[in-house]
Design a protein that fits this description.
single chain; 7-stranded mixed β-sheet; alpha/beta; Pyr_OxRdtase_I_AS; Enolase-like, domain 1; pyruvate; oxidoreductase; globular; FAD/NAD-binding_dom
């Protein structure tokens, strides 16, 4: 048995774990990183990266079918589904070196590719190596949730961990789950020539603003995607190529089944009870500083810490933990400024409070500003006017924003920064942006907050008239 003593042991080489390990090692800490599977975690290998690569291919295919209004004759694309998956694989391979073992060893990190298990509150075993550390960071991530549906054990199904390996195009893809993953995969497969049915037990995109989510779902239905809501699944059955899903609203049949009903935190097999680390189905029990409530040597980041399960949250958590571990500074993980996006075309993005949440919290004092893409010159030029920004404002400061439309995932960044920094709308309204650009949607929305205060205010008009009489 080999033994290693270090300052920090990180378990899990996904986004959060890699960020902690790289930052700590480059600032002089002795770091051991333990990963039993692939470097880069779910996001690189079976989540964010492959899904966006597949969506990009689908967008290219769809572009060939539209454009008549611009003078481009629509054409039916010839889709090589296996070649699309080659594109997905190349994308992963291109990014993989950034997360590779070699790169992190170059930072000075000791990387061990084994399963880690606590043998005491301050020691873990990984293969034939015992690691004693002053602090531990659990970054073990999550995996697709497989719900206890009647018949699921005997029915072939896909998850995000297996669907990108499928090289033959599904004739009819049934998707259980109408959240972001299910909706993204629905549009990607529909545009690549598949019949698609989404089956959701409640409301599709139920965590997003109902008004703009409803608009997006209507657009997806217009593309030929069948979306069944309030259809609780009671049983599944079938064989490869012939799948049946029974619901309270009826029976759906297709060739393939994708489960996209959520994710569960990975904690089993870590020996957390031996380490006196309190945990549950939602992850490690941590305080605002992401420190274990029951073992002060242990921290958790990303999905392992529960809460919002996004790659960028794991990266944010890494920064919080590094400040505490390396510099002893007080640091708290907050959520009000965390954005998220559904990467459909058009996209749907959110930061801060939705309209309903903001009204519950602020009542009649809340102001909601709507800015249509139809008034943006760049959107008009590109014929991408099917969008809307909803801005929730309290006393001149944004408290939430929802965007449906082209580049929503990029545009939401302005509001994420504004909410994180407590910025006033006057700063955004006063910005000078390139013309024509989609960014002017944000600027104009901020300006619309001040328009009635300036143009519909009699006191302002009286002051202007007085100045005009006296100024030479």
């Amino acid at each position: 048995m080999k033994r290693i003593d270090c300052d920090l042991c990180v378990i899990g080489a996904g986004s959060g774990g890699l960020s902690v390990a790289a930052g700590a090692a480059q600032m002089g800490a002795r770091v051991v990183l333990v990963e039993r599977a692939e470097m880069g975690g779910d996001c690189l290998n079976s989540g964010c990266v492959p899904s966006k690569a597949m969506l990009a291919a689908a967008k290219q295919a769809h572009a060939m079918t539209v454009g008549a209004e611009m003078g481009i004759t629509p054409a039916t694309p010839e889709i090589d589904f296996a070649a699309v998956k080659d594109h997905v694989a190349r994308t992963i391979a291109t990014i993989a070196p950034v997360d590779s073992q070699e790169r992190y060893e170059g930072f000075g990190v000791t990387v061990i590719r084994e399963h880690a298990r606590f043998t005491s509150p301050d020691e873990v075993q990984a293969g034939d190596t015992a690691i004693r550390a002053r602090r531990f960071v659990l970054a073990t991530g999550s995996r697709p949730l497989v719900p206890p549906i009647d018949g699921i054990a005997d029915t072939p199904y896909l998850t995000n961990e297996s669907i990108f390996d499928l090289r033959e195009r599904p004739e009819h893809l049934l998707i259980i789950g109408g959240g972001p993953i299910g909706i993204e995969m629905a549009q990607a497969h529909r545009r690549l020539g598949c019949e698609v049915t989404v089956i959701e037990g409640a409301k599709a995109l139920g965590k997003d603003d109902p008004e703009l989510a409803g608009r997006l779902l209507a657009m997806l239905r217009d593309e030929g995607i069948r979306i069944e809501e309030e259809a609780k699944v009671t049983a599944v059955s079938g064989r490869p190529g012939a799948i049946r899903v029974d619901t309270e609203k009826g029976v759906f049949e297709g060739s393939h089944l994708l489960l996209a009903v959520g994710r569960e935190v990975v904690t089993e097999g870590l020996g957390l009870d031996v380490a006196h680390v309190k945990h549950g189905p939602k992850g490690i029990a941590v305080g605002e500083g992401l420190r274990s409530e029951t073992n002060r040597k242990v921290y958790a980041v990303g999905d392992a810490a529960g809460g919002l399960m996004f790659t960028h949250v794991a990266g944010y958590h890494a920064g919080v933990v590094i400040r505490a571990l390396l510099f002893g500074l007080p640091a708290k993980a907050k959520t009000a400024h965390i954005p998220w996006a559904t990467y459909t075309d058009p996209g749907l993005a959110q930061v801060g409070l939705t309209e309903a949440e903001a009204r519950d919290r602020h009542g009649d004092a809340l102001e909601v500003i709507r800015q249509s893409y139809e008034e943006n010159d760049r959107a008009i030029a590109e014929r991408r006017t099917e969008g809307m920004l909803k801005l929730m404002v309290m006393k001149g400061r944004p408290v939430g924003a929802t965007i449906l439309g082209e580049r929503a995932d990029d545009l939401i960044g302005t509001w994420a920064i504004a909410i994180a920094s407590g910025q006033k709308l006057s700063k955004i309204a006063g910005a000078v942006l390139p013309y024509p650009s989609f960014g002017e949607i944000n600027k104009r929305a901020a300006g619309n907050y001040f328009s009635p205060r300036l143009f519909d205010n009699e006191w302002v008009k009286m002051a202007v008239r007085a100045v005009q009489r006296w100024v030479p």
